[in-house]
TrEMBL record:
A Pfam cross-reference name: Fer4_7
Compositionally biased tracts (Gly residues): 524-538
4Fe-4S ferredoxin-type domain: residues covered: 220-247, 249-279, 335-365, 373-405, 455-486
Key word DNA repair present: no
Record-given protein name: 4Fe-4S ferredoxin
Entries under PANTHER family matching the protein: FERREDOXIN-TYPE PROTEIN NAPH
GO molecular function annotations of the record: 4 iron, 4 sulfur cluster binding; metal ion binding
Gene3D superfamilies cross-referenced by the UniProt entry: 3.30.70.20
Taxonomic lineage of the native organism: Bacteria, Pseudomonadati, Thermodesulfobacteriota, Desulfobacteria, Desulfobacterales
Presence of keyword Membrane: yes
TM spans (from-to): 53-75, 111-135, 180-197
Region feature (Disordered): 513-544
Amino acid sequence: MTFQRIVQALSLGLFILLPGWVAFPLVSPLPATDIFLRTDPLVLIGTMLSSRTFIMALWPAGVILLLTAVLGRFFCGCLCPMGTTVDLADRLIPARSDRPAPTLRRIRYRLLFFILGAGMMGISFVFLAAPLSLITRLYSLILYPALCFLADSGLTALTPVADRLGIPSVTYLQIGIPRFAHPWITLILFGGIFGCAKKSRRFWCRYLCPAGAIFALFSTKPMIRRQVSDACVECGQCRKACPMNAIGDNPRLTDHRECIACETCVRVCPTDAVTFSTGPARGASSFSGERRQLIRAGLSGAGAAIITATGLPFRRSDNAPGQIHPPELIRPPGALPERDFLSRCIRCGLCMRVCPTNTLQPIALASGVSAFLSPVITPRRGPCEPRCNACGQVCPTAAITPLTPAEKIWAKVGTAHVLRDKCLAWAFGRKCLVCDEVCPYNAIDLKTVPGISGAVPFVDAARCAGCGFCEHFCPVQAGAAIVVEPMEALRLAGGSYAEKGREIGLNLSITKKGKDDAQSYGGPESGTGESYGEGSGLPPGFTE
């Protein structure tokens, strides 16, 4: 295995494993869990342009761009998880031909200017093509759940064997299987990207990647570049082996905008004529981006942004009258005000990946194109832990503010309300106490009303944080009888949630015994969540 392949393997391994340090509740989060996402230059430029904000957390992308001017596109060849994954796909799907298609290279520049044009109008389309966002979505929302499913199935298959071998502990092992909405959108997208391997190697990197277009602009004349000595016999082996088709008919000339510094040409050269070092550039590397076409692409992006911003679902502010606010649009705790949130969120799916209860899910078009695949809380799937702050810790663009556990308690995401026509206590007079028993904020008051024999639940909005425990554990099927909606959600662009919450009259605190441990919830497949009971061993809401 070559040095480049070793670096690629290590980089991909870190990319896959780092989010687990946040998702696993017994390990303290590392400060660089989202480091790969913060190295994407399209995320850097596109997000700061659409949000009109300098995002200090994205400084690694700036460092990578500066190094690119010195070393060339080394990130694409050695560190990029998307490039490594595409290389693996290329091995599985060999190209029928690898003829150069210079006109296709224009696509990535046009896509880049389309995204930048939309960003100038305040709309972020970065999530459509940022390579680090796309590949994170693939591994987090598709491959990770599939791996958990296979591991759990393996444990189930091993159970009879373990029993015969006298290892009963295997029977009690269980691996939670996260599930996410709309997986086919990501699968179809990557099916197309990987399928392009039939056309040529690294098709995505050569012709489609807008981040690659930015790297190409910065690597026109790198200080360390491909050099060919007089020992070259023009055998053409380097040209055939180059995965980016950066070597033309004359093997002594190199298009440095396309060279990803993988050094494949060095390894295949029979006369050791190729090196990577400083020296004079040999080969044209001037940028010819078809100015008119790029202007048209930028204007198209601006036009698409204007249409998006004038669509009915688009929200210009959180409190202005006439805004369409779908009831399922419950944002993660600490999410910025909606417009700021959407201008920063790159839909990478990392917040959903690390959520221990699997409540964060991608939304489709319920809130328009601008909110496509952005995260929402889905209480029926799982509650939001009062002391869990994992989603904010891994957000690379600070679309979700990283909160301390103490501040997180005050980050109200919505308010629960009882559907009296479905509630077992209200509609049928049954003694059901589930919502009261599981509420970690003690926001449910049981009162007697005329005409109903037992006590019925009322929600105290000042004590409700919208965590969704009540909706998640409600025993009523085909839709809970108590639901959380984003009413009175507290979303700040800055400042303290605790101070603002007290100022507006909230009274949020975890008061019930046994409900102050954010790690006690058993995860997305834990069933009834008995850990939040009072120690009797009975399901929530039942007494002896």
